Amino acid sequence: MVAVHDAAAEREKNLVALSSVGAAVVLTSMKVVVGLATGSIGILSEAAHSGIDLLAALMTFWAVRASSKPPDSDHLYGHGKIENFSALFETGLLLATCVWIAYEAGKRLVFGSGHVEATVWSFLVMAISIGIDLSRSRALAAVARRHRSQALEADALHFSTDVWSSAVVLLGLLGVWFAQRTGIAWLARADAVAALGVAAVAALVSVRLGRKAVDDLLDAAPTGLLEAIARAAAGVEEVVGVSQVRVRRSGPKTFADVILQVARGLPVERAHEIAHAAEDAIRSAVLDVDVMVHTEPAEEPAAAALQPVAR
């Protein structure tokens, strides 16, 4: 039953990742065509952003498939870290795009080069972009929550911010449209300002994704996880104290090593039963956790202090 559930989860994750790739292909193509036709640096910056999105979506699709491989003799904790590397790769792509967008927008603001034509097609492509990004970010977020996929979670966050960056470009195009009809010159540069807004949003997302990816790769313990595991283990009958908890994350999987203290002189069989009960309690408190519990005789009758160590 567990194998069937895991297979269904992998199919759902692969399907939503593949649909994200298809959406990126459509959006990139539309934005390139309309951006070149109208001369809008805002739309062209969004096209470049969508091109990076396509690479990121492809990387996520590969990472989701590769990370689902079972543990082997070389990867005893499985292949979940591939999802974290995927997020870090995506961060680098986004930061490179930010630099290019900021450079092009700054050049137009300083030298006033480039003619932008705010046509119905430019507004239409951005409206379609917002609709597609909103739809796929919600789909990715739903599957990420359901299966605790960090790669899909990163993609969902990424594309949800794309909605706002596209809205910024729309505002820039509106400024150009008003400038062409009112003669207010400074409005004509709103498109370049909008492109800077796109770069700022993308840079913010890059930093957030990069920080999370680095934390996961360095096995930083998620906030509250150590305490949740310790509380679950301490609540088991005949557990005197929890002397150590170590956790590490690998993709959607959490690995935990817990040392419990039990009464001195307790039979080995009973200590073994307590360890199993603690493992069951921890699995009930923390989803998708691979836990190993070790018991040792308590030095004192009083509960031992918890000394969590993140590995």
Describe this structure in words.
With 311 residues, the protein is mostly helical. The chain is 68% helix and 10% strand. It contains eight helices and three strands. The protein has helices at 2-38, 41-67, 81-111, 120-147, 150-182, 190-217, 225-234, 268-285, and strands at 239-250, 253-262, 289-297. Strand 1 and strand 2 form a beta hairpin. Helix 2 (41-67) packs parallel to helix 6. It is elongated, with a radius of gyration of 25 Å.
What's this entry about, in short?
The chain is mainly alpha-helical and 311 residues long. The protein is 68% helix and 10% strand.
Topology:
Layout: H1 2-38, H2 41-67, H3 81-111, H4 120-147, H5 150-182, H6 190-217, H7 225-234, E1 239-250, E2 253-262, H8 268-285, E3 289-297
Parallel strand pairs: 2-3
Antiparallel strand pairs: 1-2
Helix pairs in contact: 1-2, 1-4, 2-3, 2-5, 2-6, 3-5, 3-6, 4-5, 5-6, 7-8
Class from helix and strand fractions = mainly alpha
> Structurally, how many domains make up the residues?
2
Residue share in helices?
55-70%
Number of helices: 8
Keywords summarizing the entry:
Alpha-Beta Plaits; 3-stranded mixed β-sheet; disordered C terminus; 311 residues; 68% helix; Alpha-lytic protease prodomain-like; 3 strands; mainly alpha; elongated
